[in-house]
Amino acid sequence: MAEAVVFPQPGKVELREVELPDLEPGQIRLRTRVSLISTGTEGIIYSGGFAPGTHWDRWFSYPSRPGYSLVGEVSDVGPDVTGDLRPGDRVVALLGHASHHVADASVCTRVPDDVSDEDAAWFALAKVAFVGVEASQARLGSSAVVVGAGPIGQMTVRWLAALGAADIVMVHRGSGPRLELARAGGATAVLQQDLANGLSGIAAPATVLDCTGNPDVLTHALAAVADRGRVVIVGDVGDPSQQRLSSDLIVRGLTVVGAHGRHLLGRREHDIRRLFFSLVASGRFAGMCGLVTHKFAPRNGAEAYALLDADRSATMGVIFDWQ
């Protein structure tokens, strides 16, 4: 048996006992160490804040088991498990918030000894940001504006810095601590303002990456980017029909592209996880210290999600500690 976080209905959280399947060939049994809440996605599912008929309706129904960013320890391996996984190894996997899992070994990536559980838990959100940066076509010496200093925005800034972007501007209308975390991660400038007010004293960038999950931002991003620039929508919103294009798209020859974690799966996903771990261990993925702001015991899941629902801006990394 295992314990799992469950949303039986919108606005309600339970810790339920769930049965684990028997170990089959090619599978491993995991004991969870920590799991990171995806505050944007899980906040939408928790509140039921998505429009009927959208892809959210196809992906999620209640009761729903949230989570997709888990660090676990291998407790047992089944027959035919290939690679270097063995009992005692730490691994990451796109698995829900639960105390134990049985999973295919092929979906797990080993965590190096010099990367902590808390840092490793960011792997899934780092991947989402990687997809966005790749879609932006940013390169050495380029300029980019990142809108939204939440978890995805923080990971985006760090990928851009590791890539060697020359100008990385974080725009966030909220409080100072998130902006300071962005600066620690490599932002060359921070603007505490709404993008609707433009970019004060900042030249129009080649790329704007919208990491907010706010449908109103797209129109403002189109106005802010340079002529023939790119606007990348990183992640998702609960009601995509609320996102609006403007005449800037045609008149100024702009490109709009969506980026989602589902775009990077399979073998390359493992490569990006290993790259993330390497950059973290070497200090080139800067400013990881301080990104985890809250830890909860799984039995206090209702408190965790109530906090996110009431004031997500007061949090950054929110972790369930299963140890």
From TrEMBL:
By its UniProt entry, which Pfam families does this protein fall under? Answer: ADH_zinc_N
- Record CDD domains: 2-desacetyl-2-hydroxyethyl_bacteriochlorophyllide_like (cd08255)
GO molecular-function annotation terms? metal ion binding; oxidoreductase activity
- Ranges for the Enoyl reductase (ER) domain? 11-319
Cofactors that this protein relies on: Zn(2+)
For this UniProt record, give its keywords in alphabetical order, as a comma-separated list. Metal-binding, Oxidoreductase, Zinc
Gene3D superfamilies tied to this protein: Medium-chain alcohol dehydrogenases, catalytic domain, NAD(P)-binding Rossmann-like Domain
- Reply yes or no: does the keyword Glycoprotein apply: no
The family note in this entry says:
Belongs to the zinc-containing alcohol dehydrogenase family.
Q: What's the protein here called?
A: 2-desacetyl-2-hydroxyethyl bacteriochlorophyllide A dehydrogenase
